[in-house]
């Protein structure tokens, strides 16, 4: 286990050293994407955001009643320096490589590739559904460049802060969601209303994230 942690730290630092001197123009080409799960709590109507490493794509993690009492939904989104994708909400069922192709890559990522051109760099993490042969073949056929990404490194992904902001906006609403359908609609609405300047600054934070990760020798950076 210690060896694996050391390898992960080396991987983080190597990636950060390679990217810490990237220019704003280079970062502006990256589409940062991620999934997150949101839930309501029936006791307080608070909105919860959580991830379960290695298990978030199982059917029970798409919509379930857990020990906190509320049903949860899984969403996907992407941000860039000058834009964002639509927020996608997964319906019930497991997220497979085929679903990832059909629901994410074709309708969303391919759209950005067409708008931006061959300079687009697509970032997603190493979750199993992202790394199937079907996904690899689709990215190749659509001439979409994928960014190499170190495993288990959510602290490097600027979109993590976006999920936090999105949850806070839901909580701040006058009438909190009472069920999954209301939560879904509010998430879609609030995602579209997120200030682009906030997304802009998060993408521009990548150099500082890289420097911070190098400073802590590949550990989790304070971001």
TrEMBL record:
<feature type="domain" description="Tc1-like transposase DDE">
    <location>
        <begin position="29"/>
        <end position="172"/>
    </location>
</feature>
<dbReference type="InterPro" id="IPR038717">
    <property type="entry name" value="Tc1-like_DDE_dom"/>
</dbReference>
<dbReference type="InterPro" id="IPR052338">
    <property type="entry name" value="Transposase_5"/>
</dbReference>
<dbReference type="InterPro" id="IPR036397">
    <property type="entry name" value="RNaseH_sf"/>
</dbReference>
<dbReference type="GO" id="GO:0003676">
    <property type="term" value="F:nucleic acid binding"/>
</dbReference>
<dbReference type="Pfam" id="PF13358">
    <property type="entry name" value="DDE_3"/>
</dbReference>
<protein>
    <submittedName>
        <fullName>Transposable element Tcb2 transposase</fullName>
    </submittedName>
</protein>
